[in-house]
Amino acid sequence: MALVVGASLLIRSFVALERVSLGFSADHLLVLETSVPVRVDMQNVASAQRATELYATLLPRLADVPGVTSVAAIRGLPSARDRFGHDSDGGYWLQGGQDPAVVGVRLPQAVFTVATPGYFRTLGIPLRRGRDFTVNDRYDAPFVAVINDALARQAFGDGDPIGRNIACGLDNLKFMTIVGVVGDVRSNNPSRAPRPEIYMPVEQHPATATSLAIVARTAGEPMALAQAFREIIRTANGDVPIRASTMGDALAASVATPRFRTLLIGVFAAFALVLAIAGVYGVMAYAVSRRTSEIGVRMAMGAAATDILRLVMTQGLRLAVVGIAIGSALAYAVAQLLRGMLFAVGPADPVVYIGVPLALLVTVAAATAIPALRAARISPTQALRAE
Question: Which residues in the chain belong to E strands, given as ranges?
């Protein structure tokens, strides 16, 4: 009971995790992790700008590949940043609001993301209001930012954030004009709720954009275009390392740990269930053999086969009920230890605590039925001879 309940909770949790809305469309997305080997100097951005210039040249060429619908680049894949280690976050402040220089002031927190124009369209992230980044959002232009719904609610409530100025501690303290608001995305992994997020143009933050994931939405199988993308990138710069995969692969890797532990405990639970069925069958078969003469006397005194069947089945189910009652208490205690591993499912999920006992009763009834039917078919004469 305890193992099956634990496995059932993890299975329901994993199913919920697989079905959760990510905030973007992961189908037909080719991902190429790249890194331009340049020296990053926060005081002199010229070297880092060579990387952003390379990406600016590459993306239009990649977009011209037959079968590509749209292409963009970002630092840190959404819902897979915990895996790739590209998570960046920290405090932000609004112009005219809290002063970050004041000691003791706790700033609201947000995720920092740098992306190229067309990123939201490529991933299917809805643009709620305002505009996307454009090629005009360069380093020498006024700094801009796009925020998500969560940050808009946190910082502005029902007010309009478009045109307001915001700053963060990513790579400089410049105020950026908010030009757009997009939908929420589960940035780190599918199990974590969307957090406030600030998107910034790649070319305005070159020091953080030397390693980007190129994301392309394709009309067909994404990996079929991987070789063509590799050739274009290597022609532009042969020193750029490339790792091709799909967004589906990245998402699968991000939930590899919960998948493994669900499989592991599920296998143990299956073995426990098989052993329980075998144990009940063995106990009941032995009990029936010990009561053969008693069953013969009962049948000689007029007991019907259904009476004998009811007698044996009741004994087996009585043992099952006691085991389930004890197992339920143990299962609840075990479920508390699993609380941190569960997603969208509570440790006292009623579906599990109703479904598992019913399933166990059915399996116990099936295991008890064989010796019970055998006992019901015993001839009174043979039963009395067995004495």
Answer: 29-34, 68-74, 89-94, 109-115, 127-130, 144-148, 165-168, 176-182, 197-201, 213-218, 242-246
pLDDT 10s digits, 247-272: 988 888 878 888 888 888 888 888 88
* Structure tokens, 189: 């992994």
What pTM did the predictor assign? Answer: 0.79
- Reported confidence tier of residue 274, pLDDT bands at 50, 70, 90: confident
Quote the pLDDT of residue 151.
Answer: 96
Tens-place pLDDT, residues 130-159: 999 999 999 999 999 999 999 999 999 989
Residue in the structure block whose two tokens are 């112009």: 95
Between helix 350-376 and helix 256-290 the angle, nearest 10°, is 30
- Count the Cβ atoms, other than its own, within 10 Å of residue 321: 14
State the angle between helix axes of 2-19 and 350-376 in degrees (0 to 180), rounded to the nearest 10: 130
Spatial CA neighbour of 349 closest among 16, 3, 8, 20? 8
Spatial CA neighbour of 294 closest among 368, 369, 375, 365: 375
Residue 202 CB contacts under 8 Å (≥ 6 apart), including other chains: 52, 55, 73, 75, 114, 115, 116, 209, 212
